[in-house]
Amino acid sequence: MRAARxxxxxxxxxxxxxxxxxxxxLVVAVGFALTLDVAVLTTWIWSDLIELPARLxxxxxxxxxxxxxxxxxxxxxxxxxxxxxxxxxxxLYVKARNAYLAHDWLTAEATLRTLLQxxxxxxxxxxxxxxxxxxxxxxxxxxxxxxxxxxxDSGRLWQxxxxxxxxxxxxxxxxxxxxxxxxxxxxxxxxxxxxRHTAAA
Length: 201
What we know:
- By secondary structure, the protein is an all-alpha fold.
- The protein has 2 domains: 2-75, no CATH class; 87-193, Tetratricopeptide repeat domain (Serine Threonine Protein Phosphatase 5, Tetratricopeptide repeat, Alpha Horseshoe), CATH 1.25.40.10.
- The chain has helices at 2-7, 14-20, 23-45, 52-75, 87-101, 105-118, 123-135, 139-150, 159-174, 191-200.
- Helix 2 (14-20) packs across helix 3 (23-45), helix 3 (23-45) runs antiparallel to helix 4 (52-75) and helix 8 (139-150) packs antiparallel against helix 9 (159-174).
- The termini are close together.
């Protein structure tokens, strides 16, 4: 698994796109693809239409983009996801969970956002935030939070819970005038998902 992570360095932008679902990573990856396409087309397809100095300039630009992006990725390679929270983050999570269970939505949301600023890879906190936003009727924000989690490495443990929450969001948003149901999402990963994650690690 560790070797597969480092293989993403072969394509500029891919480490952040693949490992973190980053939009800037997507922009760099697509930009490099376009530059490489132009270089290939001007060398082997439209070689009669483009002068040699222009073709060389495109290849130099492609090499420079690849070199800079790879050096940048090596210096700030996305770290592996943390195995657990530190003591302060754990205290914040417990405070947010207790506020959520007490229906103190404001405190729960503020605490979860503080926790996610400290560690944006905390999948459990992101899942609880999505659930909270659904409970208070902010369906678009809840869907965005859960979509972000489902595309991140940290969402791998929570895929079945994410699917259930997205279904609840759709049902709640279709029910005009109805308040979201009182169901509380289990904050422990399903056993089968956890087993698969452990086996893959």
